[in-house]
Amino acid sequence: MKGSAVKKILVTGGAGFLGSHLCERLLARGDDVVCVDNFFTGQRRNIAHLMGNPYFELLRHDITFPLYVEVDEIYNLACPASPVHYQFDPVQTTKTSVIGAINMLGLAKRTKAKILQASTSEIYGDPEVHPQTEDYWGRVNVQGPRACYDEGKRCAETLFFDYYRQHKLKIKVMRIFNTYGPRMHPNDGRVVSNFIVQALKGEPITLYGSGEQTRSFCYVDDLIDGMIRLMDSPDDVTGPINIGNPVEFTMRELAEKVISLTGAKSELVNHSLPADDPRQRQPDIALAKAVLDWQPAIGLDKGLARTIDYFRDTLAL
């Protein structure tokens, strides 16, 4: 039987890559979970194994429209997060971040729920500070093709802190750095899924620019652990807090690891760098260590091996 302390938790974007893992983890610890998704990028197969759980509820809904439910906590993850998807309909991307945040904050205000915003390292743009600390304001091209996502998330953070100051809401803001793992969309255009799919299909691996630009890759299990720790932290811990793996790799190094782990014979081919693509991305996680006692535990080789197995099964190769 469930105890009286069980929480009812809303996860927006719950059928997505991160959202499905979060729903799974919350259910495993005994919470009631309401998963909300409009299935623009979320996939039913990500949550199919949860559908028989009596404590899991799925609502097909777009958070740019108000939602009326009774919950104790809200994880706001809804928003396309890869350039391929968020640039497909940039106006809707901005609406999801901004209007969606207003609607979820309004819901939190009405229900007195604690609410977490899944923000992003894209807040920092193409940074002049390395590694990126939470007090760095960022360097974003507000007119560029990535701005719908970058600026949408920046505005969402603004709204969260204004609701915190004006309405005393219990808020949490986490800035997510590159995350990978099973249930990534095979066509999301992100570097890990791109490289793995290309390698498994025996296709050339696409490096943009020289391949010397860097990223730091956090395995999904570690990311979800940090997310839940932040939500469960004391009310005076609002963030923003970076959650990501601080170990930095060049794109060329990542491609070589994928080729080695898949046993592929793929060649590396260079294409021109996309507009406003950051040259460096590495989180400073000192705050997460100090406040949440969190740091990633799964190294890139181990995480990639699990992700490759997932894509091998998904692609039936």
What class would the helix/strand composition place it in? alpha/beta
Are there runs of 5+ residues with pLDDT below 50, and where? none
The topology string of helices and strands comes to EHEHEEHHEHEEHEEEHEEHEHH
> Strands across the major sheet, in which order?
3-2-1-4-5-6-11
Strand content: 15-25%
Explain the overall architecture.
- Helices cover 38% and strands 17% of the residues.
- The chain is an alpha/beta fold.
- A 7-stranded parallel sheet has the order 3-2-1-4-5-6-11, with helices on both faces. A two-stranded parallel ribbon has the order 7-10.
- The longest helix has 22 residues, at 90-111.
- The mean pLDDT is 93.
